[in-house]
Each structure stands twice: as C-alpha cells, then as structure tokens.
Amino acid sequence: MKNKCLLVKISALVIGLLSFSAHGQDRFANVTIETVPVAGNISMLIGQGGNIGVSAGDDGILIIDDQFAPLADRIKAALEALGSDSPKFLLNTHFHGDHVGGNAEFGAESVIVAHENVRIRMAGGDAPAVALPVVTYDDDVSIHFNGETVTLIHMPRGHTDTDSVVYFEESDVIHMGDHFFNGAFPFVDLANGGTVQGYIDNLERVLSWITDDTSVIPGHGPLASKSDLMNFYNVVKDTSIDIRVKKSQRMSAEEIVAEGLGPELESWGQGFISEEAWITTVFNSYPR
Ligand SMILES: [Zn+2]
C-alpha cells in the first residue's frame, strides 16, 4: 500500500513538472486526490501540499488542513465519497499556504479551529476574513465528534510558532502536521518562530505519548507508524548534533555542507529540503 501511494505521488509529481514546463502555468492541472484508509473512521487524502486527515461518521465530516485553493473542488469530491462535501470542522495544523490554501473555499460552511498564532499570522498576511480560524486556543482544545475525542495540542517554537498536532483518541491516530516529513529532512521556518531545538523537543513529547499501535499521518510523505516517526526523530536529532559539534569547532556552514552528512542520508535530501538547506537551517538555529 505504501509503495503504491508513493508511486502515485511520484508520478503525479513528474506529470506536474512536465505540465509546468509545457504550459508554464497550472501546476495543479494533473493533481488527483487519493484517499488512503488509516484506522477506524479516519482517512488521509494525498494530493499536492500537506496531507489531509479526515474523520467521517454519523456527525459528519471533520478535516485537518486543505492544501491549495485550486484543489478545493477535487478535495470536496473525495470528501463527498466519504459522506459529505461540506465539513463541519476544519482544523489547521499551522499557517503555511500548502496547509491552509483552501481555507477561503471551506470557511463559509466549516468552523475553522487552530492555534491563536495561526489566526494572528494569517490576519497579518493577506488572507480574507472567511479563511481565518474562528475558534482559537493557547495550549490545547478537544472536539467531541463522530464518537471520539479529537484533541489539538500546540507544539511551541518547532516547525513555526503556530503548530499543533491532532490526536484521535479512540481511533488512535495522530496527524503530525509539519512536525513529520516522512523520509525527508524537515523544513524549520526560522523566520516564523520555528527552532530546531523546539522541533526536536516536540518530537520527543509526541514519541512519549504514542504507542506501536498508533497510526501516524505525516505532514508530507506516506502514512507511517511510530517506528517511522522514531527513525525521522533520530535522523533530525543525530544530524543536528553532528552539525552543532562542527559549528563549535569553528567550521563554517559551507565547510559542513562540503563535508556532507554521509551517503546513507542521501535520500533524505531529495524532498523539499536539500541536505544543504537542512545544514544551513541547523547552523542558523543554534548559537555557536
Ligand atoms: Zn509547513
């Protein structure tokens, strides 16, 4: 199943790139939305941008994140197949455009819930009022929906200063938002309150809560388990220590990039964040 998802995603990416070079414009033209069953009544939608979490049941539809506005009709078609194309709740894991890009398309019908900093940062940009979260919180909040407790938990100063993870208690599913790039170096948005140390601390918190039975939805990449998240955490932590040690030995970022992190991590730099970008992020996130 995982291999199939990955293949579909890779081919979508290749087709996307081809269409981009051929027409120069609509990078969403060939994006399809794939529905992946996760556990209980929870599914994950893969398209382009952050993975979408869905709870579908007697109370209706709740979704986590909404990718990009041009994909809203395709996302609604996938939700209709799960019961309804108009979600009662829309939860945002953080404020980046590949996770909240469809908010204006859903906000008239759905109650948008997110950390208060999502609202602050979106309102400070050019988002219309209809796209803004209407229920906000500081540390955490629970929604009782489709027979289970859905809890949003703030992850401070990690990927950004706006992030939460979402835990479905009865189905035992966690949506990590961009605190998990499955199999790739993460983006840590230093310009918007993110820190590498906070990111690592947040991963440790989550790993202390979940079990081997928990299904883990990453912000980007295929559906995962706790051991996949542990693997990601170890790569993030070990490479950070490596880079910090070299920085303390007065190596420049350029010298650390030239030395590299080792051939066994080559595939980790093939996603959004190259090895060079990751080294630079860690280098800039810690004092010497
Ligand atoms: Zn993000």
Residues in helix, %: 25-40%
Mean pLDDT: 93
Rg measurement, Å: 19 Å
What string, H for helix and E for strand, traces the elements in order?
A: HEEEEHEHHEHEEEEEHEHHH
Percentage of β-strand residues:
15-25%
What's the tally of helices? 9
CATH architecture of the largest domain: 4-Layer Sandwich
CATH C-level label of the largest domain:
Alpha Beta
Report the CATH superfamily of the largest domain.
Ribonuclease Z/Hydroxyacylglutathione hydrolase-like
Q: Low-confidence runs (pLDDT<50, min 5 residues)? A: 1-24
* Major sheet characteristics: 7 strands, mixed
Query: Could you say which small molecules are bound to this protein?
Result: zinc ion
Which strands sit side by side, in order, in the main sheet? 1-2-3-4-5-6-7
Write down the overall geometry: globular
Task: Explain the overall architecture.
The protein is α/β, with parallel strands linked by helices and 288 residues long. It has two domains: 1-29; 31-242, Metallo-beta-lactamase, Chain A (4-Layer Sandwich). The protein has helices at 2-23, 72-80, 97-100, 103-106, 116-124, 196-209, 226-248, 253-259, 275-285, and strands at residues 34-39, 42-46, 52-57, 60-64, 89-91, 111-115, 135-137, 140-145, 148-154, 164-168, 173-175, 215-217. A seven-stranded mixed sheet has the order 1-2-3-4-5-6-7. A five-stranded mixed sheet has the order 8-9-10-11-12, with no helix packed on it. Helix 8 packs antiparallel against helix 9 (275-285). It starts with a helix and ends with a helix. Mean pLDDT is 93; it is low at 1-24. The structure holds zinc ion (ZN). Zinc ion (ZN) binds at residues 94, 96, 99, 159, 178.
